[in-house]
Amino acid sequence: ALPILQDDRAFICQIGAGAAGFGENRTELRVYKAPEPPVIKPNTAAILASNETLEEIAVCISRNGYPSPNITWYKGRTPLQASSDKISITTTLTRESSGQDRK
């Protein structure tokens, strides 16, 4: 059977040899799942260039990836970096009822 996300854990094998004792070894199984394609929800309200406060431009949602994916915003071909006065990038992680993460 194919592994599922709930299989992501340690597995231990123990062998008993009677009076000679026993042995054990463990391994970690890591299960990875590619996220669904991202969904971008733009802010539909007007954003004024003269406004001094930072306005939300859009929200990017990535669902059902494990481990949770990294999201990078770009302007043209240049990745955006958070700066205290011009760019704010906020990440929120939500655990879905499926047990998978949504960012």
Q: How would you portray this structure in words?
A:
- Helices cover 0% and strands 34% of the residues.
- Strand 8 and strand 9 form a beta hairpin.
- With 103 residues, the chain is mainly β.
- It contains no helices and 9 strands.
- It has strands at residues 9-16, 22-29, 39-42, 58-61, 63-65, 74-75, 78-79, 94-95, 101-102.
- The strands form 4 sheets. The chain has a 3-stranded antiparallel beta sheet, with no helix packed on it.
| Count of DSSP strands | 9
pLDDT < 50 stretches: none
* H/E series: EEEEEEEEE
Distance between the termini: 29 Å
Beta percentage is 25-35%
Total of helices: 0
Inertia-based shape? elongated
Computed CA radius of gyration, to the nearest angstrom: 23 Å
Please state how the strands of the largest beta sheet are arranged side by side. Answer: 5-9-8
Class inferred from helices and paired strands: mainly beta
Mean pLDDT: 84
Describe, in short, the structure shown.
With 103 residues, the protein is mainly β.
Could you list some keywords that capture this structure?
elongated, 103 residues, 3-stranded antiparallel beta sheet, mainly beta
SSE topology sketch:
Layout: E1 9-16, E2 22-29, E3 39-42, E4 58-61, E5 63-65, E6 74-75, E7 78-79, E8 94-95, E9 101-102
Antiparallel strand pairs: 1-2, 3-4, 5-9, 6-7, 8-9
